[in-house]
Amino acid sequence: MSDPKKHCCPYEGCKAAFNRPYRLTQHLLVHNNVKAYACCEENCCKSYTSKSHLERHINIVHRRYDEDVIYSCPTCQNKYANRQNLKRHIKIHHNLRIPFSCDSCNIDFKKKHQLSAHMYIHTGIKAFSCEICSKEFVTLLEKKKHMRCHKNYKCSECPQIFKQWSKYQAHLKSDHESKEYICDICGRAFKQRTHIIRHIRIHDPSKVIQCPYENCSRFYSRNSNLKQHMLMKHEKITHDCSICNAKLSTKKKLQEHTVKMHKSEQKVRVPKTKLMGRKVRKDIGSLKLSTALQLSGLPATSEKNPVEETELVVVNVA
């Protein structure tokens, strides 16, 4: 009989338990993100929380095995780089003993959580629940996805807390990173190298593009900005709002304006159904060109091809 697992993880929400104290100590490294076992190979910066994981990494990445030392399956002769992969293969493909079976419909499952999720069909009871908010779930995967909502990221520099890792990283980059790139001419500071490279072009007369229109003193460092200026200010080409007649310089700004100012007035898109019928073709009544005619380069004419007429007559007679 195995020893009882009396060494439990002290972290809230973690139900891991072990029968040896050193295994609990090793498990706590995962919570603290401590990877004490680093790879000693040259130009390799990988590190792991357990020695076995490090050995597996070295065996797979840094060691070359001869044909006679590769781990092979005794049943199907498949070969693997390490013992762990061979054990996993045998357990999945050749260990046909299925320990979990439904008493109601005799369906077998390989894992206990699969049987628990299946029992919802018979009992209507959701087997998985959140330890924080008591919300219930049918499958273990649904619970794991839900648990991400309760994971917070506290800023180490200020008291702000974020629910998403990406927003936390964006906050660190925008609020706490020092301004590294400073312009030597005007003293303006930038956080990214690409921004200061774009800014320096303003101080170089050879890289500044002047508006070609008469009596216009505007200049730009990017050709796209100059083109947008010319379309809106001189050629009067704008993107007009159909609700309030506001004039925007780009299509993107029009979309942002519509969402911000007229969100409640937007037209609801009706989904298409078979009862609505097919949409009327835009080229109805016009001459349709075949792909062969377009590739040949021959001029298009509205006269009928006499060869096609002959073929049609033969078909009708038959």
TrEMBL record:
InterPro entries from the UniProt entry: Znf_C2H2_sf, Znf_C2H2_type
Query: Which SUPFAM superfamilies does the UniProt entry name for this protein?
Result: beta-beta-alpha zinc fingers
- Could you tell me one molecular function GO term of this UniProt entry? zinc ion binding
Family annotation (Pfam families): zf-C2H2, zf-C2H2_4
| Any one cellular-component term (Gene Ontology) | nucleus
- Specify whether tRNA-binding is a keyword of the entry: no
Outline the extent of the C2H2-type domain.
7-36, 37-67, 71-98, 100-127, 128-155, 153-181, 181-208, 209-234, 239-267
Q: Which UniProt keywords apply?
A: DNA-binding, Metal-binding, Nucleus, Repeat, Zinc, Zinc-finger
Q: Does the keyword DNA-binding apply?
A: yes
Subcellular location(s): the record lists: Nucleus
Name of the molecule in the record: C2H2-type domain-containing protein
**What species does this protein belong to?**
Pectinophora gossypiella (Cotton pink bollworm)
